[in-house]
Amino acid sequence: MNILCVESYPQAIYGQQKTLLSLLTLAESEGHSVSVVCTDAGPFCNEVENLGVPVAICNYPSRLAQYGGAIYRYGLLDKLALYGQLCGYVVSLRRFILEHQFDVVFCNDMRGLLTMGVAARLCGVPVVIWDKLDKPHGMLDWFQLPVASLNVIISDAVTKKYPVWQRRFFSSRIHSISDGVILNHFLGVSEDRESLCLETQHVALAMIGSISERKAQDRLLRVVPELVSQCPEARIVLVGQPDSHSQDYYRDLPNLAHPAVTHAGFRSDMPAVMNSIDVLVILSRQEGMGLVIVEAMAAGKPVIGTRAGGIPEVVVDGETGILVEGDDDAALLDAITTLCGDAELRERMGRAGRARAEAHFDRRKQHRRVIELMESLLEKTS
Fold first, then answer.
1. What pLDDT digit, counting tens, does each position of 22-46 carry?
2. Which domain holds residue 144?
3. Which of 70, 124, 125, 373 sees the fewest Cβ atoms within 10 Å?
4. Number of domains observed in the structure of the chain
């Protein structure tokens, strides 16, 4: 099987990009031919090249290269110009697919589907997308199921953004497969609390991921003064960076300079980070699944999360962590103080989380299921 993988956001390596790196590595190890197309150069491209996988750069035309939110705000003339550029771009992608004779195109996000995916369908090549976002795209969501030959969703929560009639009409195209982690990477890893400014007596509560309104670091930071007054040993650790579109959000975060808060920046050594903290906190306003939750569970750490998107499908409330409503500060403080004051409870929830990760979130098993679906799809279309 000759697979073309498409990544539209190669400027960073977060959960989405890690998933694709793992998937293409597994596909290659099983004898499939894999190539990658990115829309720009970036750290992700470097990682792919280090794996020995061919990478091609197909830059977006100028109007399509804008951030998604800016595109949605285009006026009529700008949109007409965008559609003109998009048509020319898709035609060039179609030539690329035909030239390399790909059997299937795997899109890692909506932009990839609406560009390379459309080009592939014009060639008669089947298209697969692994949809990881529960965030609606407006009218664009109407195109996803008709374009995709196979629509893999990371959680059942993702389907809520699709029109109801499409969920019924295209139900055979929808397959739910959660992501996973390499479980052994999180065992036997040394702590690195010093780099996170943590002392022995501290209880570290970490928020890990891109700093943005969607990830909602503000929800935790705004309760820091009250939290520290109730739990003097509590420490907040932020791991991640704001992208260019979240700089204003980052500057306006409350209590960022509080002595109990450490911003550790981007970290690539996630097993060491997870083994250095005590509790993962994920308070996202929107979240397809939250791969970082599985990483925490694999390291035996309890999770405090919001009842948003796919988070409740991963965290078992009262067993592997505690779920709260997003803007209920009192419930959040209660959950944090409960775990801060009870090391035995943290240990018990951590063990339950590790067992759940082993049972449901083994990355190799989950990615093997995706490849099997692609193999089955190719057999049906041959």
1. 999 999 999 999 999 999 999 999 9
2. 2-180+362-381
3. 124
4. 2
